[in-house]
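Quick note —
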Amino acid sequence: MMRDATPEQCRQLLEFIDQPIFALNLEGEYVILNAAAAAVRGRTRQDQLGSPYSRFVRNPEVADAMVARARAGEVVTEKIEVALPNGQAQVIVDRLGPWRDDDGQVVAIWGSAMDASVYETLGEVQQESQVLRELDEARKNLLSIVSHELRTPLASIQGYASTYLLYEDRLEPEERRDFVRRIVDSTLQLEELVDNLLTASRIEHGTLEMSLRPAQLSKIVFEAIAEAHQRWDSEQIEFTGPERCELVLDPRRIRQVIHNLLDNAKKYGGDGPIEVVLEDQEQKVWVTVRDHGPGFAEGYADRLFERFYRGRSEFTAKGTGLGLWITRAIVEAHGGRIVAASPGDGGALFTFSLPRGLQAPEA
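Predicted structure written out below.
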């Protein structure tokens, strides 16, 4: 290893490296630097050897602090303003770190330098690469989740339909109705999943459009609750609000919002009741969906609306992590906003607003 080499061997090796590399003693004085390290500071090697690291810089306090931190065992990176012989300054990025012996004791300080613009470009590339890696991982996870979510209703449809065909003559009328109802429920579940995936694709590509027209929001909420009752049988959903509440919106998209919020309440609320409240105010209309489950920890309200984020629940872990992200995008496309809260008395509530100022396009 390089730390086992003699100083002369280190010097010879470093001359073949284009990257500016140097070494300091524990007092912060140059003891080794290659030609590239000397050139980046605009001085000869003889001028710098034996001189303090902070001598030829315009921000010596930063340089001294870097030496102290490296001597204490840290690896530190900072921008340094090098004072060139012609009176001008050049900004470079230096990295210092501890040079340890076989016993782990810091015996010197190693250093390297890089042009500031190159460093910033590298940082941007690394950041973009990290984002791409995270997105690729999220897509892989989503593909796995979606594959599972699609199989569940498809298996149900196939199972009940096959059984119905095989034993149709033996089934009682009530059993037949139950089989058909379960097939319809699974079909609705599959339709909602596909609808969410298509909506997510449109949001991602900036092609989500609203078909605005005057509609009764109360009716949309009633219909979504009725469909939820049909799918969940015994689920209690309590509604409070006016019987009529007309405003301009996209009925299909707002129904999708209500479905997603009800599904989320069912998923994380356990067996407790779900409360839906519609408030018709002068400038805005507010809709709140609340469950009575364990709620969520403080500081997680914004994360719930992130794409692919899936909360933890003792009741279920199903879902694609897209529902609330889609819900927020649809609400904001209407000029509204949505917030989440976990009240002190338990549960989680989601409240979204819709403005009354939207105009339907002329025919």
